[in-house]
Amino acid sequence: MEKATDNLNEKPAVTKNFIELAIDKDLAEGKYTEICTRFPPEPNGYLHIGHAKSILLNYGLAKKYNGKFHLRFDDTNPTKEKTEFVQSIIADVEWLGAAYDGEVRFASNYFDQMYEAAVKLIKKGKAYVCDLTADQIREYRGTLKEPGKNSPYRDRSIEENLQLFEDMKNGKYPDGSKVLRAKIDMSSPNINMRDPILYRVARMTHHNTGDKWCIYPMYDFAHPIEDAIEGISHSICTLEFEDHRPLYDWVVRELEYPMPPRQIEFAKLYLTNVVTGKRYIKKLVDQGIVDGWDDPRLVTIAALRRRGYTPESIKMFMEMVGVSKSNSSVDYAMLDYCIREDLKMKRPRMMAVLHPLKLVIDNYPEGQIEYLDVPNNQENEALGTRKVPFGRELYIEQDDFMEVPPKKYFRLYPGNEVRLMSAYFVTCTDIVKDEAGNVVEVHCTYDPATKSGSGFTGRKVKGTIHWVAKETAVKAEVRLYENLVDESKGSVYNEDGSVNINPNSLTVLKDCCLEPNFESAVGGDSYQFVRNGFFCIDSKDSKPDALVFNRIVSLKSSFKLNK
Questions:
Q1: Do the annotations mark residue 223 as ligand-binding?
Q2: Where does L-glutamine bind (predicted)?
Q3: What average pLDDT does the segment 407-428 reach?
């Protein structure tokens, strides 16, 4: 949203979002002298499009206020964390262009300080070791309508708690037998404040610290400590942590950090009819329904990158979505709109025939190949031209010919004349059918005077079709994607928790025919295939002698931009 201005030469002021207004107020009041934000993922899966919003928001705030941005892994739960996920997250953040300050940070690097912080709380009488089982703790906690009741171990002496906690660290107790809990208020209306667990006994090998620890801090205890240690000024997180904010503030207050960070919550990004939950994606991967975490039908950042989305398109999408405190869903078509807008002026428009039908120009010289000048992008002359081979035998799209056409069909049919894009006018004179009656070959004649760019100003034709010369055609595999979720069934998940899979989410076309201007192409390069959409060379499966293309998005959009 922009404010109106009376001075036409003056740029309109952009309205700030509620987080920026809060930061402005904190700076004006002298609460912080430098802004420092962070992106703190747990390395238990690949990041998805929702995480991209958090990355770009936190990085954008740091950049706007000339502050710092940290990448830190909240690796306090080694049961699901892997080095593979750490590496994929680093790649995603760097690909998005979110330049983090210093080295990659890990919560596990602060385990010693967290342990000392827990000892400090015990000495202040603010934490105690509890022997209740997990079920008993849940029972004692109470409900939203009923207060909880104190643990029978809540009044242990400071000395006893210190010894028990040290014994927990030294491995004297089995997993799950004891926990360290904060001593706050079992009658608090906020259940998160009813003596939450700070540490648990768990013998697990950690991806970063190995077997050094057999006790691990809980996220709600570790996170505010990490932020405070790193000098984070504003801990920007999603709305589900709003009820956890009192505990966050309690931890940093009781540990007496001199400049405690401030937690601010914003609404998550929800896309319609997509799978974002890590456990659901993991299930799809484990069951072989998708080709790994980077399957182009998913909306993990790795999958979007493999499919051909660009950092610029995702940034544009996030700017359009905006930042708010109200949860809402965004149509996937908006993301498609952004990638179209980003690529349409930047990428060359190549000729590719996905469903080939042979076309023979009977009066064109046999054995002759001529090279025609073809603009790389008709809307952007700066991209120049390229040479495309043309010959007597070509391939055209099957649906660019009909033996018995309906009204207002302007492409090729018996007796009709069309323009071959950037080439000549041709007229259909004959067809060849197979034994089943299918048209397998179309015969035409061409008019040499109608060569594109020759200044021909004669008769007009209503139809223009693209083509590829048969003799020089490059064969390729092309993958067409639809939504992974079957939208017709009305929900993403079935009653049993499985994903409602669209059986047509992937269509693989073999032996597609492309013009031969892909000699220097590498994985990740993207193009517009004339009339077929935007496509990207698959970075995982494509090889120089066996190209594989993923369709990023079609040319048509259901999204309408309100200007």
A1: no
A2: 74, 219
A3: 96
